[in-house]
């Protein structure tokens, strides 16, 4: 009976040894999985925090955009009121701008017609001087028209 027990004992020792090795390997795997789970839980918490911050910032941006839209509407209304007031007072009214444009166009046309006459009668100093004055006035009037048109 002793002989049977020895091979069984060896076999049992061998199985126990294998089980211990297997348990150690499983323990390593479990430890690595625990570390991975901890890391993923930490990442998950960070992502949740980032999401929370993102929602907060998005809400703040929407508030800011809404505020700026209201301010823009207010400024548009204010600008319209100022334009209407300027038109009423005759400041930069469209009628005034149209009159200045017509005067500027008339002066430019007169200069175009007078240019060949000045070349033909270059000895007539009074005529040449008056046309040069007209050109200067037309240049100033054109600058005023440009300013009016911008507003």
Report on the architecture of this protein.
- The structure is a single chain.
- This protein is mainly alpha-helical.
- It has helices at residues 2-89, 94-120, 125-150.
Topology:
Elements lengths: L1 H88 L4 H27 L4 H26 L1
Helix pairs in contact: 2-3
Keywords, separated by commas or semicolons:
151 residues; 3 helices; rod-shaped; mainly alpha
Q: What is the gist of this entry?
A:
The chain is an all-alpha fold. The protein contains 3 helices and no strands. The chain has 2 domains: 91 residues; 60 residues.
Tell me the β content.
under 5%
For the largest beta-sheet, the strand count, sense and barrel status come to: none
How many helices? 3
What's the total number of strands?
0
Distance between the termini: 118 Å
Overall structural domain count = 2
Structural class from helices and strands?
mainly alpha
What is the average per-residue confidence, as pLDDT, rounded to a whole number? 84
Catalogue the unreliable spans: none
* CA-based gyration radius: 47 Å
What is the N-to-C succession of helices and strands?
HHH
Shape assignment: rod-shaped
Helix content: over 70%
């Amino acid at each position: 009976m002793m002989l049977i027990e020895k091979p069984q004992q060896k076999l049992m020792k061998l199985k126990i040894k294998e089980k211990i090795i297997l348990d150690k390997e499983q323990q390593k795997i479990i430890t690595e999985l625990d570390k991975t789970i901890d890391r993923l839980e930490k990442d998950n918490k960070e992502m949740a925090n980032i999401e929370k911050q993102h929602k907060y910032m998005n809400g703040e941006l929407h508030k800011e955009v809404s505020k700026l839209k209201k301010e823009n509407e207010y400024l548009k209304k204010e600008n319209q009121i100022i334009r209407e007031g300027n038109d009423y007072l005759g400041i930069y009214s469209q009628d005034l701008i149209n009159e200045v444009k017509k005067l500027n166009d008339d002066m430019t046309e007169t200069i175009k017609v007078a240019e060949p006459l000045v070349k033909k009668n270059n000895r007539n100093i009074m005529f040449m001087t008056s046309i040069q004055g007209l050109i200067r006035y037309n240049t100033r009037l054109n600058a005023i028209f440009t300013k009016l048109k911008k507003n």
